[in-house]
Amino acid sequence: MTTTAPRSLRVGVLGCTGMVGQRFVQLLCRPGQPHPWFVLTGLGASERSAGLQYGAASRHWTLPTPCPAHVAAMTMRPCDPASFTDCDLVFSALDSSIAGTVESAFAAAGIPVFSNSKNHRMDENVPLVVPLVNPEHLHLVAAQQREGKSKGFIVCNPNCSSTGLVVVLRALDAAFGLESFIVTTMQAVSGAGYPGVSSLDILDNVIPYISGEEDKLETEPSKILGTLKPDHSGIHPLPIKASAMCNRVAVIDGHTECLSVRIRQRDVTSAQVQAVLENCALPRPSTCSVAHLPTLGENFKPLVAFPETQHDRPQPRLDRDLGGGFTVSVGRVRPCPILDFKMVLLSHNTIIGAAGGALLNAELAVAMNLISAQ
Ligand SMILES: NC(=O)C1=CN([C@@H]2O[C@H](COP(=O)(O)OP(=O)(O)OC[C@H]3O[C@@H](n4cnc5c(N)ncnc54)[C@H](OP(=O)(O)O)[C@@H]3O)[C@@H](O)[C@H]2O)C=CC1
Ligand SMILES: N[C@@H](CC(=O)OP(=O)(O)O)C(=O)O
């Protein structure tokens, strides 16, 4: 099978007016460089936006590139499957208060859903996929299709802080065996959506609480780093102990995380850990090549490891756009006097941590022949 043949699937974006929804529009409709496989056909958000043109409904445009004129002129639809029957798949960037039921309704109606929301992430037969880490988990969708008697399904990407974290943890687990970790996050304001945290709360400040976040960082990595059961009915989670502390900081985009790990292998040096991170490669599932997905350029690197000489990296302003926002970065690798090693990592929360991750998951599903035109 090939992952490079041109395709033309019609896609919708649910929750298209928000921080993540706008990223979907940007990634799908780059000026002069439309997505080679996906044509943006349907846009949906709340009843407040239905019937408006996208340009008017998304008037709080938050990205530095303008909204493409042809998208600004599209008419918004309500988020029900009957309004998206012309779409072969949908991306969901819906508020979690509504995402659970809406996404289930689309899957039941036969429309595959690639979701950013937390609602279905830990469902037994829903794959929780970071394409740079566990692409083979996508095979779980067959169990959903059997159960729901529908060609629809739901694929989730994890919490935006879990995403960068598991790219690093996977490399360490594969090389040395991972036993436990402690992570402290410094999360950008774009993670809270629009309008998010008030400027009077966040300027000149750090807020040491993000509702529900620590629990996700302590549970999602075990599922993502787990093993697909041989009958593709679920995941055996990786047994790891985890502790997370999450903070909101006055950064626009890019989540920074201080990580300490305990590994199983003894007598490992910092130089060996550094070498493993520097040589981190894309996973190679048997069914397709992640390296040939159209959104990832030639020679894409999932992880950039800064050497000891660049001891003040990664930094969000300098490094969040590495690899177009799809590359995770790590630095300051050194021994930890309590666990074994400590380091700092960074990932773009609305690109690889949200819309970009879901876009790669959909490309992967197409490459694995899990999706057909309606
Ligand atoms: N921001 C980030 O870094 C990340 C976000 N996520 C998740 O992605 C999802 C979107 O996040 P984000 O873009 O930040 O959120 P925003 O608050 O910026 O956007 C929410 C979107 O949901 C729509 N919406 C709200 N209520 C309803 C409703 N009742 N029916 C239909 N649509 C509705 C809004 O439409 P309208 O404009 O019409 O109100 C808007 O399009 C959330 O579930 C979030 O948890 C996941 C990873 C990272
Ligand atoms: N809570 C994350 C973003 C987010 O929406 O996460 P989740 O999809 O897990 O609720 C942040 O604030 O940065």
TrEMBL record:
GO terms for molecular function: aspartate-semialdehyde dehydrogenase activity; NAD binding; NADP binding; protein dimerization activity. Its EC number is 1.2.1.11. InterPro entries: ASADH-related, Asp_semi-ald_DH_pep-lack, NAD(P)-bd_dom_sf, Semialdehyde_DH_NAD-bd, Semialdhyde_DH_dimer_dom. SMART domains: Semialdhyde_dh (SM00859). Pathway: Amino-acid biosynthesis; L-threonine biosynthesis; L-threonine from L-aspartate: step 2/5; Amino-acid biosynthesis; L-methionine biosynthesis via de novo pathway; L-homoserine from L-aspartate: step 2/3. The active site is at C160, H255. GO terms for biological process: methionine biosynthetic process; threonine biosynthetic process. Gene3D superfamilies: Dihydrodipicolinate Reductase, domain 2, NAD(P)-binding Rossmann-like Domain. Catalyzes the NADPH-dependent formation of L-aspartate 4-semialdehyde (L-ASA) by the reductive dephosphorylation of 4-phospho-L-aspartate. Mediates the second step in the biosynthesis of amino acids that derive from aspartate (the aspartate family of amino acids), including methioinine and threonine, the latter of which is a precursor to isoleucine. PANTHER family: ASPARTATE-SEMIALDEHYDE DEHYDROGENASE. NCBIfam families: asd_EA (TIGR00978), PRK08664.1 (NF006416). Belongs to the aspartate-semialdehyde dehydrogenase family. This is Aspartate-semialdehyde dehydrogenase. The lineage of its organism: Eukaryota, Filasterea, Capsaspora.
